Amino acid sequence: MAIPAAIAKAAATLLTNEKTRKGFGWVLLAVFSPVILLIALLCSIGSGGAEHNNASVEACFYGSTLSAEVPAEFRHSIEEMRSAFSLLDSAVVSANEQMESGNGLDPLRVKAVFYALCFGEDAPSQSEADSFVACFYTTETRTRTVEIEQEDGIVTTEEETYTVNVPLSLYQAYTHLEAHLGRDITEDDQSNINHVYTSVAGTAGGGSYNGKYLRGDGTSIELDISTFTDPSTKNAANLALYAIHAWESGWGYVWGTYGNVLTDSLFAYKQEQYPDGVGTYADFIRSNWLGGRTTDCVGLIKGYGWLDPETLTIGYATNGMPDLGANQMFYSASVSGPIDTMPDTPGLAVWQNGHIGVYVGDGYVIEAMNTQCGVVKTQLEGRGWTHWLEIPYINYN
Fold first, then answer.
1. What digits encode the pLDDT tens for the residues 269-301?
2. Are 33 and 58 in the same domain?
């Protein structure tokens, strides 16, 4: 898109004269500013640029309302991307059903990659979305020993084969995606992907907060639901109790985790999955959090949602609660408000851009703050929270 040549020539002619320039300068600015702003907007939302417009990201990932002034072509691209995200989510859920416990594809990562590489294209079919997601994992055939109880009560064992999906590192996935898309994934593409992902994931922690916080003094890896009011339901009171238990037990912080014990294998996988968010802090995590339960900020909430009260295991994206980032959780909430309007209800979430915590009553919040701090207790006031919300899929009645 460009300003028509005739208009540009006329403007140049007028502005060569000092007197004319002074007389018409502000008029020209007033006339052409909307055009220039529109050009800047369209440039900033182009699919191949080095940066992605924040409004575009919010519209695609959070479903925020588009202004009536948004061009029809751009609006169409947003709608196509939203449709694509729905298909990609379905493909990720199907793929993760064949993953081993504790591992799984990150749907936000998959969508961030798709957004950065495919913005402006028509939405894929479901089979095309499945093929795109298949670039992020490989399928292996394995064997395991199973016990078989005979009618006479004698137990025998035998070997059986089974298939399992194994997530690839992001860089391995890029190789598959290049073949799938028929194009190179450049450093600019990768920078775009990381920018989009960190904008929507909301798992980077509470930043460099220098205020007062308390660490729990426990080191337990046991999950305790003995004080839950009704373990069979997902409710606000039990969420607050779950968060308090995580704090009292001294849980650590590792990006991309949600309450499971950080084993060597899980730690290795998270380093591959998040070379910056986890790999950068590998030595600290190994010295402080390995062998204990860990979570990130939104993982503290998802872990409760995914907790099976009968087996006391945390399964990925179970109990009808999808995998949401902190910002997605806020934008998808049907009940929310500015922090100064928050009711005193334990189990509400408190939010600031990119970070989320659980209000536990009496003016305190439990949050997975960052890698160095782990799960901590902070005062609600003065922490920088901007909004509160009722978490989707949690009962607040």
1. 998 888 878 988 999 999 999 999 999 999 999
2. no
